[in-house]
Amino acid sequence: MNEEITNDEKLLEYEELKIEAKRIAVRIDELKPEVLEIIGEEEKVNCKHGFIERKSRPKWTYTPETTKLGLDLKDVQKEEVAKGLATNDPTIFVEYRVSDIVEE
C-alpha cells in the first residue's frame, strides 16, 4: 500500500520535527556546562555510542586600530549597497520559527 503524503502532512511533519529539534537543542545547551564539569580536563570521554570531546575554538581580540578598520570596511560596504555597486547573491533556505513551545 503506497499512500501519498499530502503537502499539509509534510508541512505538519516538518513543523513537528523543528519543534522537537528546538526542544533537543535547549536541553543540550542546559547539559553543556554539566558535561564540561564531568569531563574536566580530559579531552575525550568514551560513551555508549561514541565519545564526548572537549574542544576549543580560537576567539581573537584585535587592536583598536584593526577593529576600526573593520568598522570602516562595514561602512564602505553599506555605501556600496546603497549606491547599487554591491551585488546580492542570496542563499535560499527554509526557516521555521517556533513562537511558543507548549510542554506536553
Which residues form runs of ≥5 with pLDDT under 50?
none
Total helical segments: 2
SS strand fraction: 5-15%
User: What's the number of domains?
Assistant: 1
Largest sheet: 2 strands, antiparallel
Radius of gyration of CA atoms, rounded to a whole number: 23 Å
Distance between the termini: 33 Å
Q: Specify the helix fraction band.
A: 40-55%
Pattern of helices and strands: HEEH
Mean pLDDT: 90
Report the strand count.
2
Structural class label:
mainly alpha
Shape descriptor: flat
Main β-sheet, spatial strand arrangement: 1-2
Structural write-up:
It is a single chain. The model has no long low-confidence stretch (mean pLDDT 90). The chain has a two-stranded antiparallel sheet with strand order 1-2. It has one domain (7-83). It is flat. With 104 residues, it is mainly alpha-helical. The protein has two helices and two strands, in the order αββα.
For this entry, give a set of tags.
two-stranded antiparallel sheet; mainly alpha; 6% strand; 104 residues; 2 helices; flat; 51% helix; single chain
Topology diagram in text:
Layout: H1 7-39, E1 44-46, E2 51-53, H2 64-83
Antiparallel strand pairs: 1-2
In short:
Helices cover 51% and strands 6% of the residues.
